[in-house]
């Protein structure tokens, strides 16, 4: 685990709370506004940020994020812009990429890892990459001391959970439900079970994504998860109410994870 992520989770444990991790895609609705929104999240209490790299076929993402990344791509957002966003945000909080594998493979894993490290990033979540096919990325990430972060789901077997735990660094991303990202009235009951099962296979922090959209939900999930990942709700806030909307939602989420 990178020192910054290790320190982050250790600090949150000492405060008896989960870490709050916020996601936004770079370039939506413009590059400058997306970076301003990420910095607003920092000011409002987020503990780490996922910088999303827009991709033409985002298989894990629901309609809110799909619309946003499509607009970002049509506006000219590219991988190079994502490195710029990491460079702007990483001095303030630990920062990781959320990226499908194809952009990394096309960029070149070694070059991608080197540029991410140079920008100050800590690692990357690769939702469509499985450990068995991740050799080139694991090698490149290790060379640059980056954290490769893999995803588990309620359907994951214990053997799969163990395999992901063995190769991941930083934390394990636990998808709370079978499906795509999106805000939900409540986070599925299987999320807590998945966290428990994953912890039995790894000592890494387990962070829950898919579904958390407000402070009340963050408070509930924060009782059993090491971290809470929020994406669609923040993207919708940016779409509807701009940077101020992102700031207000982040404040609510930050208060939620700190609720006893």
Any key phrases for this structure?
260 residues; alpha/beta; TIM Barrel; nine-stranded parallel beta sheet; 11 helices; 9 strands; 50% helix
Give an overview in words.
Strand 8, helix 10 (215-221) and strand 9 form a beta-alpha-beta unit. The chain has a 9-stranded parallel β-sheet. It has 11 helices and 9 strands. The protein is globular and about 45 Å long. With 260 residues, it is of the alpha/beta class. It has one domain (3-255): TIM Barrel, CATH 3.20.20.70. It starts with a helix and ends with a helix.
How many strand units?
9
CATH superfamily: Aldolase class I
Fraction of helical residues: 40-55%
Poorly predicted regions are 178-185
Could you outline the blueprint of secondary structure elements for this entry?
Elements: H1 3-14, E1 19-25, H2 31-44, E2 48-52, H3 63-74, H4 79-89, E3 95-98, H5 101-107, H6 109-119, E4 123-125, H7 135-143, E5 147-149, E6 151-152, H8 158-167, E7 172-175, H9 190-199, E8 206-209, H10 215-221, E9 227-230, H11 232-257
Helix pairs in contact: 2-4, 2-11, 4-6, 6-7, 10-11
């Amino acid at each position: 685990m990178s020192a910054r992520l290790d320190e982050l989770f250790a600090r949150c444990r000492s405060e008896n709370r989960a870490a709050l991790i916020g996601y936004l895609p770079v370039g939506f609705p413009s590059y400058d506004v997306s970076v301003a929104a990420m910095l607003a999240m920092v000011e409002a209490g987020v503990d780490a940020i996922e910088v999303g790299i827009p991709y033409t076929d985002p298989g894990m993402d629901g309609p809110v994020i799909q619309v946003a990344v499509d607009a970002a791509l049509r506006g000219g957002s590219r991988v190079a812009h994502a490195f710029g966003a990491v460079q702007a945000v990483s001095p303030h909080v630990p920062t990781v990429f959320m990226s499908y594998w194809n952009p990394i493979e096309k960029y070149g894993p070694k070059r991608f890892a080197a540029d991410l490290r140079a920008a100050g990033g800590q690692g990357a979540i690769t939702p469509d990459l499985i450990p068995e096919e991740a050799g080139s990325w694991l090698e490149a990430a290790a060379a640059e001391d980056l954290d490769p972060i893999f995803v588990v789901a309620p359907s994951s077997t214990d053997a799969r959970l163990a395999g992901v735990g063995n190769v991941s660094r930083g934390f394990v991303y636990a998808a709370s439900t079978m499906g795509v990202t999106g805000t939900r009235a409540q986070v599925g009951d299987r999320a807590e079970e998945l966290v428990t099962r994953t912890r039995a296979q790894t000592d890494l922090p387990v962070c829950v994504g898919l579904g958390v959209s407000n402070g009340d939900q963050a408070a509930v999930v924060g009782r059993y998860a090491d971290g809470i990942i929020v994406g669609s709700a923040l993207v919708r806030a940016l779409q509807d109410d701009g940077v101020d909307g992102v700031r207000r939602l982040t404040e609510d989420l930050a208060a939620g994870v700190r609720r006893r």
